[in-house]
Amino acid sequence: MMSRLILIRPGCTEFDEQQRIQGTLDLPLSDRGEDQQRQLLSELADTDIDLVFTSPTEPALTSAEQLAEMHGVECRVVPQLANVDQGLWQGLQWEELRRKQPRVYKQLQEDPCCVCPPEGESLTDALARVREGLERPLKKKGRLVIVAPDPVACLIEAIVNKTPVADIAPACTGRCGTWVPLHEVDEVTSAVELPTISAAALKPA
């Protein structure tokens, strides 16, 4: 039996609007994000959903709970789908990082795997963590939803679709408040493989 999977990026926060690096910080939806959330719920109102999985990082968690309540289904938190820990970069504007640490910024463009934010985690470590978190959800059958913010949403998308990780940015990518159907998941896909991280994968929004 095939399973259908939808990936939802929650609406934006004030950090998203300000192009600040949010990382694992829990922030509420901004006014704009609330409008995006209402639009998402409206768009998915007639979509059949059996189970919702979510990142524990806000605002993904609240958004997932609202969606699950609307459809009368269970919402399960997957701790391994927490957003990428950006360490001491959290709260910085992306442009500020480029200006104050140009050499690090250049490294991020050329080989993002070799850069780890101070007191944070590397993309390679985050990818392995997310892979582990997806193992059980991808064994479920039915019409499934995963709610997660960028950049961890990009990692999820790459793992499920078995494609290289590309166009990753620690700040808002402009895709807040959107949803995308991923490839149908079968039993073979449940043995999740790690995709490669391409050069210059981490780009500014």
Helicity, as a percent range: 25-40%
Assembly state of the chains shown: single chain
Could you describe the largest sheet, including whether it forms a barrel?
5 strands, mixed
Count of structural domains = 1
The CATH class: Alpha Beta
CATH superfamily: Phosphoglycerate mutase-like
Based on secondary structure, the structural category is: alpha/beta
Q: Which value, in Å, is the CA radius of gyration?
A: 16 Å
Through-space gap between termini:
38 Å
Principal-axis shape = globular
Give me the strand/helix succession. EHHEHEHHHEHE
Strand order in space, largest sheet: 3-2-4-1-5
What is the strand content?
A: 5-15%
Average pLDDT figure:
86
Number of helices: 7
Characterise the protein shown here:
The protein contains seven helices and five strands. The longest helix has 13 residues, at 31-43. It has helices spanning 14-17, 31-43, 60-71, 94-100, 102-110, 123-134, 152-161; strands spanning 3-9, 51-54, 74-77, 143-147, 178-185. It is 33% helix and 14% strand. It starts with a strand and ends in a 20-residue tail after the last strand. The chain has a five-stranded mixed sheet with strand order 3-2-4-1-5, with helices on both faces. It has one domain: 3-Layer(aba) Sandwich (Rossmann fold), CATH 3.40.50. Mean pLDDT is 86; it is low at 187-192 and 199-205. By secondary structure, the protein is of the alpha/beta class. It is globular and about 50 Å long. Helix 3 links the parallel strand 2 (51-54) and strand 3.
